[in-house]
Structures are given as C-alpha cells and as structure tokens.
Amino acid sequence: MHGHNYRLLVQVEGQPDPGTGMILDFVKLQAIVQEAILERCDHHTLNDLMDNPTAENLARWMWVELRPHLPGLCELELFETDELSVIYRGE
C-alpha cells in the first residue's frame, strides 16, 4: 500500500445568476466537494471504495458522486502529481 496527495480541479458551467453574477458560489462548491468526495477519500484506503483505484477510475467515481449535486458539472481534473493528471468529462 502507498499513498498519494491528489489535487482535484472541479469545473462547472452555466449562466451566471443576474443578482450574484456567479454560476455557483465557491464556498458552496467547496462544501459540496468536501461532503461528497473529500470526507470519503481523505485519509482513507481507496481500495475500500473500489477494486482498482487508478486516477482514471477515481475521477469517474468522483463524477458519479458529484453530478447529482452539481448540475453544471462539466469537467474534473485529478492530479496525481504536480505534473500528471487525468481529465474526466462524463460519459
């Protein structure tokens, strides 16, 4: 067993709200990602979530978990290192 310090980039798209000028407040976005993904992954054994926790499989799993909470979700980029990442845009 070994560990990683992943970094996740979550992108949403949509029309900005005329009142706030935002598609989604970053504080709300962070809370959604924290609850749906980070609390379940951070300092946990990823093999308990799936049989083969590659970056590609993790990104797909994260998409499935986030999509119901983020209708404007358009892209996830999961960095395994500072230079190496995978991008997932849904099925």
Any overview of this molecule?
- The chain is built from two helices and three strands, in the order βααββ.
- With 91 residues, the chain is an alpha+beta fold.
- The protein has a single domain, classed as Tetrahydropterin Synthase, Chain A.
- The longest helix is centred in the middle third of the chain and has 16 residues.
- The radius of gyration is 14 Å and the shape is elongated.
- The N and C termini lie far apart (30 Å).
CATH topology: Tetrahydropterin Synthase, Chain A
What is the number of strand segments? Answer: 3
CATH class: Alpha Beta
The main pleated sheet reads as: 3 strands, antiparallel
Shape: elongated
Integer average pLDDT: 93
Structural domains: how many:
1
In the sheet with the most strands, the strands line up as: 1-2-3
Q: Strand content of the residues, in percent? A: 15-25%
The CATH architecture comes to: 2-Layer Sandwich
Question: What is the overall number of helices?
Answer: 2
* CATH superfamily heading: 6-pyruvoyl tetrahydropterin synthase/QueD
What order do the helices and strands follow? EHHEE
Distance between the termini: 30 Å
